[in-house]
Write a structure and sequence with these properties.
The protein has one domain: TIM Barrel (Alpha-Beta Barrel), CATH 3.20.20.100. The protein is 35% helix and 17% strand. The chain contains 11 helices and 12 strands. It comes from Brasilonema bromeliae SPC951.
């Protein structure tokens, strides 16, 4: 698996990371054994970036990751988000970036993950009620104490990022980035490159829609929160499914799947960024990793792969075709409901 540097502080991760959120909630029923097997196979295939959060499944996800990486701690880079507040019934009740809350959050995460330190630690959103200098200052103290190695931010605007970076070097920013979410290219991505900060792009498949396997019927599955997001409702969904058909046609011409093509596009945007791909099943993991060279050779487990495809090589012409077919703002609907959009790019 290709390794890429995020920031200038020494953080090095696989070009594709594994997002574990859906293993605990949001995208239908969970299967802990299959999820654990998926994490372990990802590690076997060269993925070292494992992304979780203390609020996924209200703690369940960290406990799941602990079981999966037992005995393999040195093979993984743990990316952990904190700050989102959940109610007893799983509802969202705000964000907390206060220093005292950070001390509490890190204590629980270290215990649930059964580790001595977290590699990349960052607030899931910018708390509008707490100066970013205070939040990052508290994280800097954790670095001094050896409980955290690198600091990141999530969904932060350029001006917020500059203020944070002035307090302590920020190694990476996590934000949604895909063929359908390209808004960061105008200002945030140039700011990251100016400051020498890496990008961790999540949801390269737009929560699965770019895989070509999601339709109106499948979104009605019990427990799937996507059906309540603007991009996956009514006329927006109809429009967006039409875009998926375009992606399928281009993928067919490249002899790959739509998911592989969408991931390969993100990876091709620069060697200072990586893509977080969320999946809870090994068969989809294998397909997704077909977008990079790690899917060919080097690991004994690859003999069992059901998806054997070469790494996707995108030519200048391919990139131009994709960017022409999926320009900024071509997708219908916002990424999140209105209340949650207030916390992105903050």
């Amino acid at each position: 698996m290709e390794r890429r540097a995020l920031g200038h502080q020494g953080l090095e991760v696989s070009a594709i990371g594994l997002g574990c959120m859906g293993m605990s909630e949001f995208y239908g029923p969970r299967d802990d054994q299959e999820s654990i097997a998926t994490i372990r196979q990802a590690i076997d295939m060269g993925v070292n970036l494992i992304d979780t959060a203390d609020f996924y499944g209200v703690g369940h996800n960290e406990e799941l990751v602990r079981r999966a990486i037992e005995g393999r701690r040195e093979q993984v880079v743990l990316s952990v988000k904190f700050g989102a507040l959940r109610s007893y019934d799983g509802g969202w009740i705000g964000f907390d970036g206060r220093p005292v809350a950070i001390q509490n959050a890190i204590a629980h995460s270290l215990r649930r993950l059964n580790v001595d330190y977290i590699d990349l630690y960052f607030p899931s959103r910018v708390d509008p009620n707490v100066p970013i200098e205070e939040t990052v200052g508290a994280l800097a103290e954790l670095v001094k104490q050896g409980k955290v190695k690198y600091i990141g931010l999530s969904e932060a605007a350029p001006q917020t990022l500059r203020r944070a970076h002035a307090i302590h070097p920020i190694s990476a920013v996590q934000i949604e980035y895909s063929l359908w979410s390209r808004e960061i290219e105008k200002e945030l991505l140039p700011t990251l490159r100016e400051l020498g900060i890496g990008l961790v792009g999540y949801s390269p498949l737009s929560r699965g829609l770019l895989s070509g396997k999601i339709d109106e019927t499948s979104l009605q599955q019990s427990g799937d929160t996507r059906s309540r997001m603007p991009r996956y409702q009514g006329d927006n969904l109809t429009h967006n499914l039409g875009l998926v058909e375009k992606l399928k046609a281009i993928a067919t011409s490249k002899n790959c799947t739509p998911a592989q093509l969408a991931i390969a596009w993100v990876i091709a945007q620069g060697n200072d960024l990586v893509s977080i791909v969320g999946t809870k099943r090994r068969k989809y993991l294998e397909e997704n990793l077909g977008a990079v060279s790690s899917a060919l050779g080097g690991f004994p487990d690859l003999k069992q792969l059901r998806t054997r495809r070469a790494a996707i090589t995108l030519t200048k012409g391919d990139l131009e075709e994709l960017e022409h077919s999926f320009p900024v703002n071509v997708v219908a609907g916002e990424r999140y409901p209105e209340a949650m959009m207030a916390y992105v790019y903050a």
